[in-house]
Structures are given as C-alpha cells and as structure tokens.
Specification:
Number of domains: 2
Strand content: 25-35%
Radius of gyration: 22 Å
Order of helices and strands: HHHHEEEEEEEE
Helix content: 25-40%
Mean pLDDT: 84
Largest sheet: 5 strands, mixed
Structural class: alpha+beta
Low-confidence stretches: none
Distance between the termini: 51 Å
Shape: elongated
Number of strands: 8
C-alpha cells in the first residue's frame, strides 16, 4: 500500500470516527454544536476518502469491493442526511439577553409532517471558543394552549417560561456553570 493510501485511510478513519462521535454524543460546546454537527457530511467524506485510499491497493478485486462499499455508504449517508434535513431543520427565531454572560436562544422547527411547530429554548453562556449551550425547554403547539408565549429572566440564575394558556415553568440554573437544573417540555 502506498504512503498516499495510508494517509487517506487514516483520514477516512478520523472522519468516520468524528461522524460517529457527533451523531451519538451531543456536546454542550457551541463550537462543536454549530460547526461540526454534520455527521452525514462527515460520513460521506469518510466514504470518499476510503474509496480514494483503495486506488493504491494491488489486488483489483479488493479495490472494487472497497469502492462499491464506499459508494453504497456515501449514498446511504447522503439519503439519511437529506431526510434529516427535511424533517429536523430548525430556524433561528432570536435571543433573549440575560445577565452577562447568559442569553436564551429561541429556535423553531416543524413538528413532523403536520402544520404544528415546535419551539426549542436553550441557555447559552458566552465565553469565546469555550461558549456552552444547554437545552432549556421544548414546546409543541399541537394543543393551542401549549404553544410557547414568552420567556423572561426572573433572577441571575432563574428563568420563567410562559405558554399560551398562562401556565408558567420556572427553571433554575446552576450558579457555577449556568447549566439548567431541570428542563421544561410540553408535547415534545
């Protein structure tokens, strides 16, 4: 096997490992959550690198088998990524500023195939490259009274979330880390 093929094989294994890590483990680091959270794209990259590495093999039959498997894997990853993009895409709605360095992020997505929407809330602690973000709540508006209405800071480490029917959810944050001690959810 040529040195080029060995480098491509190592890069393929790294990309595949990173794809598996991102797919199965949700990180609280904003840098990883927003910029490296593309497991299907990383899977396609791993398959393409593996097919390129196979070009340096001596045995033709092994080259063909690896290329066929890589094409099948890349096709599967592309299809699954397309399905995930169609049904799990979120739209940024805005931020609610809190006591420095905290703010609440609001995102909205469709709930399955229906007309319902889901509002996702998360609390972010800004800190440059080490900024962190944790889930705060999820509200599905399939029942009109359960739709998200508002969120406000009630103290330096507490948040109140209100839904359309007037029900409120109080969430306390850990004073040291900013991580929510509980989360709020309706029909999610």
């Amino acid at each position: 096997m040529s040195p080029r093929s060995l480098v491509l094989l190592a890069a393929s294994l790294c990309a595949g490992g990173l794809a598996a890590l991102v797919y199965f483990h949700d990180s609280s680091l904003v840098l990883l959550r927003e910029h490296l959270n593309h497991p299907f794209a990383l899977g396609v990259l791993a398959c393409l690198l593996m097919a390129s590495a196979a070009a340096g093999l001596r045995w033709m039959w092994l080259r063909v088998v690896i290329v066929v498997l890589a094409v099948l894997g890349a096709s599967t990853a592309l299809f699954e990524g397309w399905v995930a993009l169609m049904f799990a895409s979120t739209k940024e709605v805005g931020f609610v500023d809190g006591p420095a360095p905290y703010r609440i992020r609001l995102q909205q997505s469709l709930a399955g195939l229906g007309p319902d929407t889901v509002m996702w809330l998360s609390v972010r602690r800004d800190g440059g490259l080490l900024s962190r973000e944790w889930d705060l709540g999820c509200f599905n508006d399939d029942v009109p009274g359960d739709a998200f209405d508002s969120v406000k800071w009630t103290g330096p480490s507490s948040v109140e979330i209100r839904v359309a029917d007037g029900q409120t959810f109080s969430v306390a944050l850990d004073p040291a880390s900013g991580r929510p001690q509980t989360t709020a959810a309706l029909n999610c």
